[in-house]
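User: Hey, quick favor. My workstation is busy. Could you predict this chain's structure for me?
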Amino acid sequence: MNGPPKRDAGERLAGWLYTAMLFLLLPYVAFHLLWRARRQPEYLCHWGERFGRYHRELPPRPVIWLHAVSVGETRAAAPLVKALRARYPEHQILLTHMTPTGRETGEQLFGENVLRCYLPYDYPFAVRRFLDHFKPDLGVLLETEIWPNLIHGCRVANVPLYLVNARLSEKSARRYARFGKLTAASLRMMSAIAAQTGDDAMRLEALGASNVSVMGNLKFDIVPSPEFLELGSRLRRNFGVERPIFLAASTREGEEEKILAAVLAVGVPGLLTVIVPRHPQRFDAVAQLMEKMGINYQRRSLDRPVGMDTAVLLGDSMGEMFAYYAACDVALIGGSLLPYGGQNLIEACAVGKPVILGPHTYNFSEAAEQAVAAGAAVRVENEEALVRELQGLLYNPERCNGMGQAGLEFSLRHQGATEKVMDLLERAGLPSHPSPDKGGAGGVTSATD
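Assistant: No problem, here it is.
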């Protein structure tokens, strides 16, 4: 396989030190899994896979492997998986994850149409076992996954490896720069890198990456299915057709208290607030917070009409975010009120809902700036500004509708990344079997948050 040069002496030393550190941390790895299992018992399952032990017999088909760490990356992979299955029907798609929620999302999206497992931790022996077992024709890492031993192992095994939908915030770039030699060597071993934005490409190149191109964001190619739009209509009927609905989507720890304080001050008659925490292990904690604050709430999991005396619906369900967006009037994107970097705002735009963003959106910086510039989103700096924006939107349906239409146009204008990535992967030498719509890259349904 042609490609970048092997690691020099300094890079080999950095790789050795990195691997030695991993082995020193091995006891912590087991402790970490046990600690996470306190809130998510699923972390106790499939431990062998995390060290490269796989017992499932593979079908006699060549493998295309995609790695999607958790929920967001798995969702982003959906249009690419659809296009790969259409263009390479003779191949088996393997989807790897690092979190149970990512694995569950993959099952919801694809069922038995793809293989699923955990990617092993970045120990050389585990990487070798993984590659020897699955023998992928090529590998695709999504977003920001730079694992030196995995990347080097693919180089040794002659597996072309791509980093696609790549994003790299300034904060992450500074962290990787602390291990400059190892990061640069790993990035140069990639067959190619498809960055989301020009800023992402610039930061990757500054770290030593080569063969970087800008291809946009795969998440723009995700569109809601009719089934989830219908579920959204049913939810709206359950919530109350005449009630104004405010959705706080994918909230993170510490944000719910701020959001609840804001909605209590809004003063919009009949307002129902729907709060959907980003991580399911926090559902009970948010419920306890509302009980402590004396707020009357219901759980979505009960699946019953929401009473007029209910102020908040706790969205304690998985895989329904498109439906929540379809059912609301205004959506706040979680992870942006506090410095978590923000969650995906594209899905709200794709169903034509006005978006409110907090000050912290570095995970989606370009998309957030473009949405604000397009009139599809507004930014608030604090709780007081959130109160003002909610009042300004919920008391002004024409403004809501205008922002929603701007969001639809914004999301449609930025589609097309999937086909660009497919063209990039095709240059790896896989035989192409185009479907009539060239892999369906113009849109794919998603059922996940």
